[in-house]
Amino acid sequence: MARDERTTLLEVHQALPEEQFQSLKFLLEGRVPAGLLLPASRPELCRILLQRFPGNSLSVTAGILRQLGRLDLIQRFQLPLEEQIPEEAPWKPNGDTPNVRRDPTSGCHHGGIPAPPVNPRRLTEKDLMQVAQRLGKEWQEVGILHLGLERSRLEQIQEENPGNPVLWNFEMLREWRRREQHEATVLQLQSCLKSARLDPGILDFLQNLQGD
């Protein structure tokens, strides 16, 4: 059984294009230490998952594939889906977070509408990845003009993830969420992006998230 699990896991990873394989590793960060994930090749990641999730590595992978929108791979390899994907742990500030001054009434650079105090829905890693996949080439413009991020930080993100635009967008959104902490809600991001030159589908997606 273990051999079949290993073989299937490797075939799933090999079926992913490089960009989505890197995205899969990023989405595993809450369960596997980043120090193990980031340098891992496809066979190495299979070994890590088999060790950390014995007998359950396929369902863990299936959960991430669902976040990436690769339901076709779940069906092709008949992967078992987890009963429930645990919520991510609440973010805690770390020492390398830049100390950014901002308007206390808004997390938007241009002064958007603050999120309502009643049960605001905070953005998860999955939400951020889904928004990142929809952002276009104007990501730096969005980050500087609408999210109030520093250009130097965006250039650092680009250098750390060469040739992977989806991860540039994802890390940019995570940087904004780290800064906003508890105010990083769906409504807040929607307000920030409302005046940006973006695919209208992004605002529709955020609108749908508010109803979840």
Describe this structure in words.
The chain is an all-alpha fold and 212 residues long. It has two domains: 5-77, Death Domain, Fas (Orthogonal Bundle); 125-211, Death Domain, Fas (Orthogonal Bundle). It contains twelve helices and no strands. The protein is globular.
How is this structure best summarized?
This protein is mostly helical and 212 residues long.
Q: What is the topological layout?
A:
Blueprint: H1 2-15, H2 18-27, H3 34-37, H4 42-52, H5 57-67, H6 71-76, H7 125-132, H8 139-146, H9 151-160, H10 165-180, H11 186-193, H12 200-210
Helix pairs in contact: 1-4, 7-10, 11-12
Classify the secondary structure makeup into a structural class.
Answer: mainly alpha
Helix content: 55-70%
CATH architecture of the largest domain: Orthogonal Bundle
Q: Which stretches are low in confidence, meaning pLDDT under 50 for 5 or more residues running?
A: 83-106, 110-118
Average of pLDDT = 78
Comma- or semicolon-separated keywords:
212 residues; mainly alpha; Death Domain, Fas; 2 domains; 55% helix; globular; DED_dom; DAPIN; DEATH-like_dom_sf
